[in-house]
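Dear colleagues,

I hope this message finds you well. In preparation for our joint manuscript, I am sending the Heterokaryon incompatibility domain-containing protein (Adineta ricciae) sequence together with its predicted structure, so that both groups work from identical material. I would be grateful if you could confirm receipt.
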Amino acid sequence: MWYESLIVSLFCLSCLSVEGKKQSNPMEGLWKRVAELLQNKHFAKYAVDYDRRPLIKLTNDLNGPRMRLIHWSTVAAIQRIPHSDENLAVDALESIDTYGIHTCEIFMVSHRWLRPRLDSSQSHPDSLDNVKAHAINEFTKWRQEWIKSKYGFSPEIFYWIDFCCIDQHDLTSAIPLLPLWVACCERFLRIETPDYSERAWCRLEPLLSYVFQFADHHT
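The corresponding structure tokens are as follows:
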């Protein structure tokens, strides 16, 4: 199945590469390193286990931004999706090691921004009444209750959300890593809105996630 992952990953990378060139992206070295990693037929084999730390380490070692995640308790406490400037996202590897891999789950959150603006600094992914944050918190409650009833423990859930896990002032260095960060997430949470499928990347995210979702999950 590695070749399916490769095809989809390279397709995503080519789409992102075009976007990067439009922005006069100076990160040619990072694009090259990402492409080389995706073309390695052993790359997908690192995802056969629920432990995504080897993938995260490989991605971090490409000398781009380190992967960051936001813990479920943070979103539950503030009842909104925070901006990256608030520095509430945590280092992925350090946080997983803190809680222990056997209790952690990593969800990539795929969504369409609800308040886009021509001035990207004014854009926000959620509504004024924080409907997405509410949906994520409700999902967290359901997921933890379900895992506890079936496996006897409450998981430590981490979310990868672009708005808080990517430096919103340095998107250029993050764009090449997007396919890898999808692969680094053990699971996938799609928040559908009426216009979700209108954006090309929203169509690619579920596809890319699917080909990496063949791990032997512990939950």
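For the figure legend, we might mention the following. Confidence is low (pLDDT under 50) at residues 1-10, 20-24. Strands lie at 68-71, 90-91, 104-110, 156-160, 187-190.

With kind regards,
E.M.
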